[in-house]
Amino acid sequence: MSSSITLIENLNRDYICALDSLDMSAWLACFNLKGRYTFISEENERRGFPIAFMLDDCYERLQDRVTQVVEIQSDSTEHYQTRHFTQLVSVSETDNGLINAVFNYSIYYTQRDNNLTKILCVGQYFDTIKLDGDNASYIERKAVTDTNVLPRYTAYPV
Amino acid sequence: MSSTPGNEPLLEWPAKYNEVPKQVFEMDELWPKELETIFYGAEWHPIVHRAEIPNPGDYKAAELGEMPIFAVHGDDGAIRVFQNTCTHRGTSLVTESSGNKKEFECPYHRWLFSLEGDLVGCPNSRDFTPDFDKKNFSLFQLRTEEFCGLYFVTMSDKTPPLKEYLGESFYEPLSRVLGGDGRLKLAGYQKVMYDCNWKAYCDNDGYHAPLLHKAFALLNWQGGKGFQRISENGHLTFESELKIPDEITALKDGSILDFKGTTTSTGSIVQMQFPLTVYSKHMDMLNIRYAFPKGPKGIEVHYAYFTHEDDNDEMIRHRIRQSSNLLGPCGLISMEDASVFSRIDKGNKTPGNAIFQKGVQDEYALSFEVKQNDESGNLPRWEHYRKLMGFKRAAQ
After folding, report:
1. Mean pLDDT of successive 10-residue segments in chain B (396 residues)?
2. I need a labelling partner for B134 at 20 to 30 A (CA). Which of B17, B90, B143, B171 fits?
3. Same domain flag for B142 and B208
4. Contact call for A73 and B215, based on CB within 8 A
5. Which chain A residue shows the shortest CA-CA distance from B306?
């Protein structure tokens, strides 16, 4: 399990570094072809409501998320620098050989216009991960945010 | 008239009807007057749809201006809206944004209220004032009216009946936003805080500037034929066809832009109800945007999304995928709206007036003849606001 944890931690590191450097290709590379990504409020998740802030439920949607950030909305977004802080709090193996992991996360953001740093959101990642030799990739990463009211519009995945 | 203690008006309005003083977004001292005349005045404010609290005991907390309120579904099936305060010492009764309770108990002195707002228990009442009667201590209930399952409140007994207040040109399309018959199911919320004055939000979220949306161009998405209707009391309705190209090359998965259009052939309805509520039906997304100003600066917007009771599983999934990816604070076609609110607010710290151009034929007259994308449709709302606030218009 310890080598699995290393792979899981490395995958998570690749993921948060990709977002903090806004390298959307590297973000996409964290997912395999069955990959899904969801960014949803804790309120909706707890109450069983499916509406999400972002719902990329197939690989094509993940590709379109990259297009949205890089091409479609790049000129209308006031860029903000994020810093992701994460901590692995749970890991287990499923019956079909996949890994379930849970990370706590807190994300700070700094706006370039005023250079003030605030909290964007705090929550947990619920991951389903496929390990293939020395490779790890997300089948699913669901970011559930305790911050049910986001402090600003959010242009990038978390 | 809004005035200082010396009785001088806080603000003089420009002579031209297409000009709005930027100060109106930035003067914190306007907020108490806005609360009094607008939020606690003769206007209707939507608070909850029945689909949000479908079962007896379900409740939803909200705010009207700065006043905490909550809507509750009673055992008798009726939905009532109360001030969120114990009638004894004023403690707030509801602390969660939503939930389900059999009754509402104040933790301070254990006063107990039924779902219908009646005081049903209060320990030690033998020691109360001699003429104490529980019947006189029911929760404070707000005047409420319902349309297609949506419940509106007003603080004034002078507010006209709801349908008269909205007008047919507004409530007819609103019924279609609400699924045609109001038989909706809540699919969830997206909640966000925008860093701007509430008037900067309502001046720009209802009115849609197509030029802002790069997504429209990249997707080769054209608005199609449409119209804009406005009323003297500031309500605004946009309705248009949506021409989605057969093939969308910019996206790998174009299915989120499908328009299945089961209830109407119209692709897009956007409505702004004075003072600040937006309703929209873009393609198959049914959306109410409840908005709560946090004082003169900052506005919290709750995008509530719905499916229809008659939807099959495919339609439900489609609405959820579309709503979660196109609208709201992260949406493909609406994030630009969100981004522009704070930029407008920053720009409004400069002197002078914001000037409306598109569709203005006569700067010194108010016109209700507007075309689909004219920004002049916002002007009747500003005139309604000016009159309510008592600002004198400067001479020509």
Report:
1. 56 94 95 97 98 98 98 98 97 96 96 98 94 97 98 98 97 95 97 94 74 65 77 92 75 88 70 96 94 96 97 96 94 80 86 93 90 88 96 93
2. B143
3. no
4. yes
5. A51
